[in-house]
TrEMBL record:
Superkingdom in the source lineage: Bacteria
Protein name: SHOCT domain-containing protein
UniProt entry keywords in alphabetical sequence: Membrane, Transmembrane, Transmembrane helix
Transmembrane segments: 15-37
Presence of the UniProt keyword Transmembrane helix in the record: yes
Length: 90
């Protein structure tokens, strides 16, 4: 029985078309996998709702001083230590 190319096997053009179709679908699958991975990584790296950035040591020190947990002399001494310098006088 004859097919539309005139013999029982595909002609050269048929193989090229099949090859291009395989490449096309492989590219579509690769693109979809890449998009899913990129989106999932973006979702994982996004901070949760209501999550705050971690406080810096200076922020913790300022908050403790404002709350009255440490006195001004201790605050000045600890602040100087954080900044890498000697504390000021009393």
């Amino acid at each position: 029985m004859m097919n539309r190319w005139g013999d029982q096997y595909m002609s050269g053009a048929g193989w090229w078309m099949m090859g291009l179709m395989v490449l096309f679908w492989a590219a579509v699958i690769v693109l979809l996998v890449w998009a899913v991975l990129r989106i999932s990584r973006a979702i994982e790296s996004r901070p949760a709702e209501g999550a705050r950035a971690p406080e810096s040591p200076r922020d913790v020190l300022d908050r403790r001083y404002a709350a009255g947990q440490i006195d001004s002399a201790t605050y000045r001494e600890m602040r100087a230590g954080l900044e890498g310098r000697e504390p000021d006088g009393p």
